[in-house]
Amino acid sequence: MWNERQIKEKELLKESNFLTIKQLAMMLKVSEMTVRRDIPIITKDTSISQVHGGLVFKQEEDTQTRYEATRENTKNQLLKKVISKKALEYIHDDMVIFFDSGTTIKMLCESIPKDRAITAITSSYEALIPLTELSNSTIITPGGVFSHKPRVFYDLESIKSINRYRGNIAFIGATGYEMHMGLTCAYTEDAPLKQAIMESCQTRILLIDSSKFGIVSTCFFSDLSKFSVVITDKGIPREYEDYIRKQDTVELIIVE
Q1: Assigned domain for 62 exists
Q2: For position 49, what pLDDT does the model report?
Q3: What is the model's pLDDT at position 91?
Q4: Is there a single domain that holds both residue 78 and residue 148?
Q5: Which of the four pLDDT bands, split at 50, 70 and 90, describes residue 59?
Q6: pLDDT grade, residue 218 (50/70/90)?
């Protein structure tokens, strides 16, 4: 039987989707230790999970609006192809490179010359398949439990594993970008993986086709300012092009 505080914790998580332990403690005006003691109780509810950095509430699946990797493979193929071709120019021998999930990242991995000698790190099943064909490269996967919809391997140990590595570049995808809401992804498993990858590399490159601008998905994972380079296509809305070009630390590359 849950007490009033634990019921409130669930309500707050349902409203926000993700909260850190510190945030929950501040909202409830209790200590972080109190929240930590509640975790084994409230996570018995299968809609609540503990992830790296806090707790998430898993919304019910809506097959009409949720991102599914198998469905996304068929969308905007040409746009993603030219974006991945441009991204390939940043990959050189002897680099350590993180590859995020998503179909544009998958296309990038498929386009890497088979004789390229890199160290590639990924939790994405879709990226892992073509990367294993690079016979001169070292391929690292942090492992974890396979999540079917985003097709990634994820658990708390995989985040710890990523944090042990360091890379030159990370290629990151997103389900949506909105000026005020930031960069978002559709699944709770993806956000902590993206954040851990971004924290572990020197240069962060966002690969995002023009259909994703103005879109807000379920889970926030980063502000645009955290990226060094944004690669997109000429369909980017003018207001977004102008906005990104005003960011002093972000280079915008628009491919034809």
Answers
A1: no
A2: 86
A3: 97
A4: yes
A5: low
A6: confident
53 or 134, greater pLDDT: 134
Q: How high is the pLDDT of residue 13?
A: 84
Adjacency order of strands within the sheet including 119-122: 138-140, 119-122, 96-99, 167-172, 201-207, 229-233, 251-255
Residue 73 and residue 23 share a domain: no
Amino acid at site 235: G
Residue 195 lies in a domain: yes
Output the DSSP codes for the chain.
---HHHHHHHHHHHHHSEE-HHHHHHHHTS-HHHHHHHHHHHTTSTTEEEETTEEEE-PPP-TTTS--HHHHTTSSHHHHHHHHHHHGGG--TT-EEEE-SSHHHHHHHHHS-TT---EEEE-BHHHHHHHTT-TTSEEE----EEETTTTEEE-HHHHHHHHT--EEEEEE--SEEETTTEEEES-TTHHHHHHHHHHTEEEEEEE--GGGBT---SEEEE-GGG-SEEEEETTS-HHHHHHHHT-TT-EEEEE-
Q: Are strands 152-154 and 145-147 parallel, antiparallel or unpaired?
A: antiparallel
Domain with 123 in it: 69-255
> Domain count of the chain?
2
Closest CA to 198 of 223, 235, 231, 233: 223
Rounded CA separation 249/218 (Å)? 26
Residue 71 confidence (pLDDT) above 60: no
Task: Give yes or no: residues 118 and 32 share one domain.
Answer: no
Name the token pair of 99. 């590859």
The one-letter amino acid code at 47 reads: S
**DSSP letters spanning 228-242:** SEEEEETTS-HHHHH
